[in-house]
Description:
By secondary structure, the protein is α/β, with parallel strands linked by helices. Helices cover 45% and strands 14% of the residues. Helix 2 crosses helix 3 and helix 17 (375-389) crosses helix 18. The model has no long low-confidence stretch (mean pLDDT 94).
Amino acid sequence: MKYVSTRGYGPMSFTDILLEGLAPDGGLYVPESYPQLSTEDLPALREILVYEGYVRLAAEILALFIDDISFADLEQITQRAYTKAKFGTDIIAPVAPLEPGLWLAQLSQGPTAAFKDMAMQVLGQFFEFELARRDQWMTIVGATSGDTGSAAEFALLDANRVQVFMLSPLGRMTPFQRGQMYGINSERIVNITVPGTFDDCQDLVKDLNGDASFKEHYAIGAVNSINWARLVSQVVYYLSSFLQVSRGDAVSFSVPSGNFGNICAGHVARMIGIPIENLVCATNENNVLAEFFATGVYRVRASTETFVTSSPSMDISKASNFERFVFDLTGRDAAQTASLFAEALPSTGVIDIRDKPYASDPAQVYGFRTGVSTHHDRVATIADVYRRHGYLIDPHTADGVKVARQYRGAEPMIAMETALPVKFGKITLEAIGQVPPIPARFAQVLDAEQHTVLCDGGIDQLKQIIISRSIFR
């Protein structure tokens, strides 16, 4: 299995792209071709999930995409990632019925109470394994709109060969999210606040990756979903969810989405043969993705046009993983993808594919549906689910449930949970009149002393922060 950039660079091995993150040409790595599961494979995979568990299922699926790590080592990696100590149960990512035709994939039982733990714990183990094998170290530079940062930091906190520099938008996360990240006091974890939005943080990370000499000198790597290893780890819970709900017929998924990472994993799951009828992309008021699927025009927003909402992890107007989908949409045409993302988008802020031969109906071809959820919708959905089912959901999951109800059909609809409500006390109080209970393991989060570095001087200041705080150089 080899990998190529969406803009043409490659081919590369899995372990090389694991450590590299963004490709040198600015593109995102994808498999040269997708491995395929047949309908005959699904019963055997269900048996693996039932009798051997999520750990073994994860190793089986990762092995489809990875041929430069042995299966025995992959199984060791997944065993270390998915433990009862980390996830509170031997049942990883259970799916539970919510109401007729609608199920909830419970993905937020990990150490930071967010679905990001599902992939980040694996990614951390991949880094430790490969860096030890090569006797190397790595500087992770990432961006977060809320949950990626804490999930990455907790996954890598004890990694001997990794240091993390995590950028987050100043003042735009909830108090719990800030406490969870900024409360870590370790030289291996450097939290950097950036005035503006997540998109501004993400742009700085991409600019840093564009400096080849700096990237090489400091061994810059990525934990955001631009790293293929993280995205492919998410494919596993789409299969697991399908196997728990269906005996073979197709299901649909509703996925709250801002950066197009989680739902892109669903797209990959569909491409390898998992029977998925629809992938429902649920956005908040920052509806760049919904606008594209409705019109064929992808228009990024400036920081001043990006709304601050009550589902803050989706306050994103530049969806990084969208390029991977467009690469497939163009028929895997790297030149066409590069012209859209390296030329048209930087110069105009717009990708318009309405006149392209491959754009007749991307939603129909690839099974995408979209919908928008507002603050009023979130509050109403949280209240309704709690009143009718006694289950408390977070605002991002509420966006997904709200839009899922619009598209519920004959096939089972699985809404993907994104976080536990403990992270979002203000909107929970508004919806049900009380704040969510704080699990004992998070009792000190809001009281912890916070440690951050301000970066308001652009890419040059970011480089200086890395230089001054690096423990490896």
